[in-house]
Specification:
Elements: E1 2-9, H1 13-20, E2 36-40, E3 47-52, E4 56-66, E5 71-77, E6 85-95, E7 101-110, H2 116-139
Antiparallel strand pairs: 1-7, 2-3, 3-4, 4-5, 5-6, 6-7
Length: about 140
């Protein structure tokens, strides 16, 4: 399954990229349902552990990073918290002019333990909430 959500921002791409490029800095722009973040390692291969309510921990591995292309990709790793297989997501910041940009957040995954529509809604909901938090951070 594929999910892709895009959001426009009324700030330059450099402003947004400075936040997103820090794989361990997710709390700087998104505290929705996130209680803590820690990172083991640096660069591609680093694993961030995101503490979420209920004492659960979601682990994500940095799979690719492109500074020039302003994008990075990550996968789920460790003990599964969300019942998806082969989850691979990419966030890309695209320049739309001096004071605007667009961010694309897309993923592919398998959902053997979930109804397809429920899986799509779950991931879209995470992305929409993340974009709302990012927008509040950079446009406030």
């Amino acid at each position: 399954m594929e999910v892709k959500i895009s959001e426009n921002f009324s700030v330059g791409s450099d402003v947004v990229w400075q936040l997103l490029r820090d794989f361990g800095g997710i709390l700087r722009w998104n505290s929705n349902g996130i209680e803590s973040v820690s990172v083991e390692g640096e660069g591609v291969g680093a694993v961030r552990t995101i503490g979420i309510p209920g004492g659960l921990e979601l682990q994500e591995k940095l799979e690719a990073y492109n500074e020039e292309g302003r994008s990075f990709s990550y996968s789920f790793t460790g003990k599964p918290v969300i019942p998806l297989d082969d989850y691979y997501a990419t966030m890309t910041v695209l320049d739309e002019g001096d004071s605007s940009c667009r961010v694309d957040w897309e993923s592919t995954f398998e959902h053997p333990a979930m109804d397809p529509e429920a899986a799509r809604q779950l991931i879209e909901g995470i992305y929409v909430a993340g974009f709302a938090a990012l927008k509040q951070t950079v446009e406030s």
